[in-house]
Design brief:
By secondary structure, the chain is an all-alpha fold. It has ten helices and no strands. Modulates RecA activity.
């Protein structure tokens, strides 16, 4: 029974050992039976938290535009060890993170009105908020938004009058 539950879950997507253990617990599988099945799956390579973390980082950064900080939180929730998560997160460097933030801002700006100073201020706040929710630090968010709005003719000094906090 435990084996079938794990195999069914693994057909959808890769999962961490903790995710499978939680699923087995929810289904009422005894801990000793669950441990035996999970150990065997680990031995044959069906469970690999490092491979899962690497795939998760690439997917969440490329498709959802999440920053390292947000992805690290997700990996922790899924039971990936901090050391394993750190190795996977090393794939995303500061340059690619900033480039992805700029892509997100540019895409969002296409649907925003930024003709007046008030619209530019509102757009700036919304864009910084969007990046913050995706895990980008304040310094990166402010810099990327200021650059994007400046390219759209905004007077960046009027946007908020304050320098962003350091990350």
């Amino acid at each position: 029974m435990a084996r079938e539950i794990c195999l069914r879950l693994l057909t959808d997507r890769a999962r961490t050992r903790q995710e499978l253990a939680q699923a087995l617990r929810r289904k009422g599988i005894p801990d000793d039976a669950a441990a035996t099945v999970l150990e065997r799956f680990d031995e044959v390579g069906l469970i690999d938290d490092a491979a899962f973390a690497g795939q998760w980082v690439r997917s969440r950064h490329a498709h959802r535009g999440l920053a390292r900080r947000a992805i690290a939180v997700e990996l922790r929730r899924k039971g990936v060890a901090d050391e394993v998560a750190g190795e996977a997160l090393a794939e995303v460097d500061g340059e690619s993170e900033e480039r992805r933030a700029r892509e997100l801002v540019d895409r969002k700006l296409r649907s925003m009105k930024v003709a007046s100073a008030e619209q530019q201020t509102v757009a700036g706040r919304r864009l910084v908020g969007m990046l913050a929710r995706k895990g980008y630090g304040a310094a990166v968010a402010y810099r990327v938004v200021r650059e994007a709005l400046a390219e759209h003719g905004a007077d960046v000094e009027e946007l908020d009058g304050a320098e962003p906090p350091d990350d």
